[in-house]
Fold this protein.
Amino acid sequence: MTVAGPGFGATVSVVVGFPLGVLAGLVATLAMDAAMARLPEGPTPPTVAAGVLTETHPDAAPGRLASAVHYLAGGLTGPLFVWLLLAGEALVGPGLGTVLLSALVLLVLMVGFFVAVVLPQAGLPGGRRRTVARDWAVSAAVYCAVLVPLVAAGGTLL
């Protein structure tokens, strides 16, 4: 993977890029947790996912499962970003624009999947569902804001 642009410029092999994505994804998930703690619905998005998996209401979803799913998804979303970046570079070439476009695509995928696929299955009332969706969008933006520079910095250092 080549991450080029202001402050970037190293080439990272795919072998290094995907593990870097996992690590950066986990760090970004920790940042996301800090953001969620300040939002009205707090840790509701992970409990929504756990509730959907167990077919229970999010308020009664197993907390440990919610945490496990949250960190697993966060860790695996990092390599998804690396893949999007590699695909973007193959299509339009390396550069800061490709990094930012890949980040935007990732954010849209994260928010879109949660809001369109997962959240409707949670059984939450409309007003609460809107609040959870908004909180998730903010949390996902924080995740991307941490993930993207970590992957780019890792690409520069490695």
User: Anything to note?
Assistant: Residues 14-157 form one domain. Confidence is low (pLDDT under 50) at residues 2-11. Helices lie at 14-37, 44-54, 63-92, 96-118, 126-157. Residues 126-157 form the longest helix (32 residues).
